[in-house]
Amino acid sequence: MKLRYIGESFGPFGLTNGRVYIATIGDSDYYRVFDDEGEDYLYFRDNPRPCDGSSPGGRWEIVEGMTEREKALDKAFKGAEGAWYNELTGESAAIAAEYAERYKDEIEETWRALSETEEGLK
Rounded to 5 degrees, what are φ and ψ at 100? Predict the structure, then answer.
């Protein structure tokens, strides 16, 4: 997927206002983004910002949506979080585990594609 960062630019290797970045799903709270340095880092989905608090950050604008593999990965992460929640509340985690298993191949394909993309950016 491709995301445009809208907000205050930060760091020499962070995010730049208006720039479009290649990204994939990090987990349900984060995008894994190839930033200005060409490295992949996790940034919050709702307010990407530096972890040192030096900038208020900004927001993402979706330029190109998730591929089918990225959608499967997103669903699997949500399923895994559901399993964690179910364990805390004493409910069965079987449904979430089944969901994650169902999308196992898509998740592995996504990570392979991400690795190839990362190699291509270097």
Answer: -65, -40
